Structures are given as C-alpha cells and as structure tokens.
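Something for you to look into today, if you have time. I want to see for myself how the chain folds. Leave the record below and I will have a look.
***
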Amino acid sequence: MAEGGTYAFGCMQHQRRATVKAIARLLSALAEPTRLRLLRLIHRQELCVCELMDAVQLPQYKVSRHLLELRRIGVAEARRSGRWMHYRISGAAARSPLHQDLLKLLDVHLRDVPEAKRDDARLAKRLAAGRADRYACR
C-alpha cells in the first residue's frame, strides 16, 4: 500500500484514490513512446510478444523490457502459453477510472498518428497471417 493508506498501482489492495506519488510513477512510466504504442495495442486485445514485435518493429528484448515496465506499474499482465508470453491490460487497470481515462485518451489521440496507423496495419497483417499457425511466434 502507498503512503497514507491509498491505492498503489500494482498492489493487490485497491481503494478509490491514488496518491500523487503513484500517479506520477504511472505517468513517468508512460512517458516513453514505445510503452504508449504497446499499451495502445494490448488495450484492444491480448497479444503475444512476437505479435507486438512485428507491430512495433522492435527486437524481442526491447519489447519485453517495455512490457516488464508496464507490468511493474500494474497496467499490464502476462499469461504464459507454452513458450510464448501473452500480454493484456491488467484487471486492476481495467477497473480503475484513472487507467480507463488514460486508455481512452491514448486511443483517441493516437489513432490518427502515422506511427500508430503503421502499428495497426502491421498488427492486422500479422494476425491475419499467423494467428492460426501454432508456430507463428518465434
């Protein structure tokens, strides 16, 4: 729990208010462009790391590092399926009004950004080609 008994992002205990410190940590972590791109993509659906790699055109170690930070601040959660890790918005973030507002903001303001459009196009192509193939992920 954060100072003053209020909600700390990533904790199992939830209350209605977040501390200014916790919000600052969240916004600081989201100040990285790649994390915003990844968060926007997993907000729509659960995705495998390899699908995210193809969408944002970055190597696995960079994508995983950014996803780890999103997990650390409590906005993403992972699920292992065999060799692959799948990421989605965490249950706590999905229930948090602050997180919901931030996710809406990202979706509205990034949807027409050229980089986000390219991410969407690459992801759509990747999903159309590889979702049914069990070995599509590297």
